[in-house]
Design goal:
Strand order of the largest sheet: 1-2-3-4-5-6-7
Number of helices: 11
Strand content: 15-25%
Largest sheet: 7 strands, antiparallel
Number of domains: 2
Length: 351
């Protein structure tokens, strides 16, 4: 059986890789067409291509579940067309054993995709945001763990992160006068309201001749960079690693802010391997359909439609869970559990 498991896994890996390459290439082409106007406006083909290249890890993570479903359908259908599945059934291999082989391969692939997206995706997204800011004309430098730097007149501004609602975290401002550092301002967070930034947890240090003057306060103000310029740095929760999601959730809790959206994305990421495996399991029953009910093209079309339906339902149910304040694990788990139940029911009928 090990030989059969390895053979089925190899076919699924090849077909999933092929489908994933096609999907990623197609979406990159659409993005390139969309950004052609930016080339004519800013005249920088390199920046556009760099942003497209840096978006690859995020696209791979997003498109992998759909690619796994279509790839499993393609790989298993090719085995059926070549008569190999019939030979396996004649040799005593059950539908459940074939599904188990596909499930093993799907779990390994989905875990690798999750690790890749968690390690490479956030770094690539940060670099992409920096390139987008440069393309927008901002004088920006990106740090590894220190956020990003902006220049505002004679001041240098460091911002740790920009949340989706344009709340800024870990603000540091260095003001210079006549070539010397005159003032340092630190703030834990800030929100833009009524034409200025309202800061929380402020510590201001003034560098006077021969002495330092430190002033701390719970609140402060900053008439600085407009939030529209910072929107390109806004953190997409889906682009964060699991570790950073934990960190942001704890930060928001400490500041008594809503964490539901981040918790939902966290559970999406934790459940991603199981969701991908369930989608592969869904492909198995359709391979054993009667050929009179449709050939390979129909099966691939059906796989794409089912994948899109699940994607819309999964995100839609998550949004409903946020709207009605359901627990985040429930909002992320229910669509996956329904998919698993449907897959097992169809698999039982096929067996």
């Amino acid at each position: 059986m090990k030989i059969i498991y390895r053979y089925i896994a190899r076919r699924l890996v090849i077909s999933t890789g092929l489908v994933l390459s096609l999907f990623v290439g197609l979406f990159l082409f659409f993005d390139l067409v969309t950004k052609l106007g930016e080339i004519s406006q800013r005249g920088s083909l390199y920046q556009v291509l760099a942003m497209l290249a840096l978006s690859l890890p995020g696209k791979i993570s997003t498109l992998f579940p759909m690619s796994a479903l279509v790839g499993a359908t393609l790989g298993l259908s090719s085995l059926a067309i070549d008569g190999e599945l019939t030979a396996l059934r004649a040799a005593g291999v059950s539908v459940l054993q074939i599904a188990y082989a596909a499930l093993r391969a799907a779990l390994v692939l989905s875990l690798l995709a999750a690790v890749f997206g968690d390690m490479v995706g956030p770094k690539a997204a940060s670099l992409a945001r920096a390139e987008e800011a440069k393309a927008a004309g901002l004088d920006v430098a990106l740090g590894h763990a220190q956020g990003f730097w902006l220049r505002e007149g004679r001041s240098f501004v460091n911002i740790g992160d920009v949340l989706p609602d344009l709340t800024i975290l870990r603000l540091t401002i260095y003001r210079f006068r006549q070539g010397h550092l005159s003032r340092e301002l630190l703030a834990l967070s800030g929100r833009y309201e009524h034409g200025r930034w309202f800061l929380n947890g402020v510590a201001e240090t003034r560098f006077l001749k021969g002495r330092l003057v430190v002033h701390k306060s719970r609140h402060g103000y900053w008439d600085g960079i407009a939030p529209s310029l910072l929107s390109v740095f806004a953190v997409d929760p889906h682009a964060l690693s699991v570790f950073n999601l934990f960190r942001y959730i704890n930060h928001l809790r400490r500041n008594h802010q809503d964490t539901a959206r981040y918790e939902l994305v966290l559970w999406y990421k934790l459940l991603a391997p199981i969701t991908t495996a369930a989608m592969v399991l869904l492909a198995v029953p359709f391979v054993f359909r009667n050929p009179r009910h449709g050939g390979l093209g129909f099966r691939l079309f059906l796989a794409v439609v089912l994948g899109l339906i699940f994607y819309v339902f999964n995100r839609g149910f998550g949004d409903l869970s946020l709207l009605y304040h359901f627990p985040a694990p429930l909002g992320a788990m229910v669509p996956t559990l329904m998919l698993i139940v449907l897959s097992l029911w169809l698999l039982r009928r096929a067996g």
